Amino acid sequence: MPDYKELYLQLMRATEKSIRILVEAQQNCEEQILQEEEQESRT
Prior knowledge:
This protein is 91% helix and 0% strand. The protein is rod-shaped and about 65 Å long. By secondary structure, it is an all-alpha fold.
């Protein structure tokens, strides 16, 4: 019989990891946009 609790926990860990990756990517993009805006405003 499958260990449903362990399967659920694996799914939740993968979901949390995916969310962290997406949030990090979004933050990196936002930082790049802000840096470009700062450079443009200095010019």
